[in-house]
Amino acid sequence: MKQLTITEIVPYLPYNTLIANIEYEYGEPKPIKSAIFLTPEIVHNLISFPKTRKLILRNLSDLTKEIEHNEERFVPITKLTGVEDLSVFEITDRYIKLPKARYSGKEITDWVLNLDKVGILLNPYIAIQRLIEWHFDIFSLIDNGLAVDYNTVNK
After folding, report:
1. pTM of the model
2. Residue partners of 144: CB distance under 8 A and separation at least 6
3. How far is CA 114 from the centre of its chain?
């Protein structure tokens, strides 16, 4: 089983990422009722107690859905690409692609986000930084049982 490492935790430190406190009853996890903010002091707990402490992150599939972050509502893929019409994207369960075309009078080159691995982006550094800031799971931690999907947490 994959283990959470400091390399996967540290990028989320500056962005008020939440940590789920997971309680168990008869060996089964109970619904998550409490969470705390990720701080440098808590990093050790995440690594040492992976069953009871997990990052709360968004799946990359949420890029095309409206989210709320820091009291602002937006569609992340629109904010990353500047394209508001989601119908121009080719979207499957494994990738999101904006074909080369002209939008608002300017040419946009191919923009691809592969859900298995982040692919070609308009500006890779800024795009990855934004995904982390918006608490997206860019390391497949949810799929590996090392993080909790934001959409499954009682708000």
Report:
1. 0.78
2. 1, 2
3. 13
